[in-house]
Amino acid sequence: MAQKPQANPDGDRYNPKRVYVREDMIAATSVLQIRASEIRQTQINWQSYLQSQMITQRDHDYIVNLDQRGQKDMPDQNPEACADVFLNLITHISKDNTIQYILVLIDDILSEDKSRVRIFRESRHGSVWQPFLNLLNRQDEFVQHMTARIIAKLACWHSSLMEKSDLHFYLSWLKDQLKMNNNDYIQSVARCLQMMLRVDEYRFAFLSVDGISTLLSILASRVNFQVQYQLVFCLWVLTFNPLLAEKMNKFNAIPILADILSDSVKEKVTRIVLAVFRNLIEKPEDHQVAKEHCIAMVQCKVLKQLSILEQKRSDDEDIMNDVDFLNERLQASVQDLSSFDQYATEVKSGRLEWSPVHKSAKFWRENAARLNERGQELLRTLVHLLEKSRDPVVLAVACYDVGEYVRHYPRGKHIIEQLGGKQRVMYLLSHEDPNVRYEALLAVQKLMVHNWEYLGKQLEKEQIDKQTGGTAVGAKA
Predict the structure, then answer these.
(1) 171: number of Cβ within 10 Å
(2) Residue 368: how many other CB atoms lie within 10 Å
(3) Residue of 114, 111, 109 whose CA lies nearest to 157
């Protein structure tokens, strides 16, 4: 039997910004709701379905009494009949217009009273999920998205969890809808996820369908502020789980959210981003991960944005509380930051720049070997940046760092070759940016020479010989 969903440990913080909750819910489903209002005005000829034997006499009498005669308490009076009739209707009727109307009726029944989900979840009809999941494959977009809305309510408003295979199918469908270009119902899809991800047991299922990376890739593509707010809200509820809060920045969440914070002109977007940042520090049980998150925020210039918000002094108490909390924690992390911490955070953020640490010979002498820690995590990230980044500055700095690592670590050349770094650097020799070509050339020279220091001395000696006309060599002979 499915387990009861875990109680929310954070209580009212799930409605953090309570004054905005209702307006966001309305905005989030406006396309769906506008269409639903139009569909409610439709008159369905139930008699024709009875005459064609597509529905039974019982189904006909029930739906006519509920629909046309307005007997709205019928679902509560006879729950079993209600479930049977509606499940029969959506199973046996194929006409899109009628299915649309039936789904609006079901949604209205559930919206009037959340406890009515038990009518469908505890039905004798068998699995309640399959008839609805089948509708997700229909061509009609309204049918798909009204069905998705109903499924979210059935999954979240009942004490029993959605079965694993059905849950996987549903979350995969939502994820694919998010990725669809020009989806008019994207806000409705996001609203379904906002509901689903409040339930702790559904969060890891969403992770398993690659949901978190999908959310972040869409956020990185600069969507409109309403969708932005909703998707960041999804990240926020995910981070109430300590394990997911610890994993979040492996998906590059902090740099993406830092960009949104920097560009945000809507207070509710600012508020929800700050709330995610706070969870990324408060929720991880591993204090080292929380520290790394602080450093990543510093690296992504979050302190600058906090300073701007502090000067503006918003009237929103939640915003200012989070600003104060983040300021205190990030400032403390800056004081404890070693040069290697700064470097590691910069590399992990993927936002390399010519900060002083790169050009410091002392840094490389002392820390080159540390790039091998954690399964050569930093080296692998550098090689990945050489392959994936389109930013000339990032590519130039990554080439320089690879060269310095090889220069100061005895086995560096062999390791970089194993990781595919040599091939990537050589490819950049023909890059369109002259700075990238220059740094790639220097890195290749370091990779091709076994002893960089020896080469430096040889070059120096040759220069002296040229100036003295080779007399020093002749004298020695």
Answers:
(1) 24
(2) 18
(3) 114
Count of all residues that appear for the chain in the document:
477
* Type and span of the H or E element at 139: none
Task: Read off the pLDDT of residues 123-158 as tens digits, 9 standing for 90 and up.
Answer: 776 678 999 999 999 999 999 999 999 999 999 999
Q: Label residue 295 by pLDDT band (50, 70, 90).
A: confident
Task: Return contacts of 358-361, CB within 8 angstroms, 24+ apart.
Answer: 358/397, 358/400, 358/401, 358/404
Angle value at C-alpha 147, between 142 and 152, nearest 5 degrees: 130
pLDDT of residue 237: 97
Dihedral pair phi/psi, residue 186, rounded to 5°: -60, -35
Cα separations (Å) of 347 from 161, 179, 351, 444?
A: 41, 28, 7, 20
**DSSP string over 159-179:** SSPPPHHHHHHHHHHHHHHHH
CA distances for 411 relative to 134, 264, 317, 448, angstroms: 58, 46, 55, 13
Cα-Cα-Cα-Cα dihedral sign, residues 108, 114, 115, 118: positive
Q: Return the C-alpha torsion angle 178, 182, 188, 189, nearest 10.
A: -10
For residue 94, which amino acid is it?
S
Please check the confidence at residue 18 and state whether its pLDDT lies above 70.
no
Over residues 218-228, the pLDDT tens digits come to 999 878 899 99
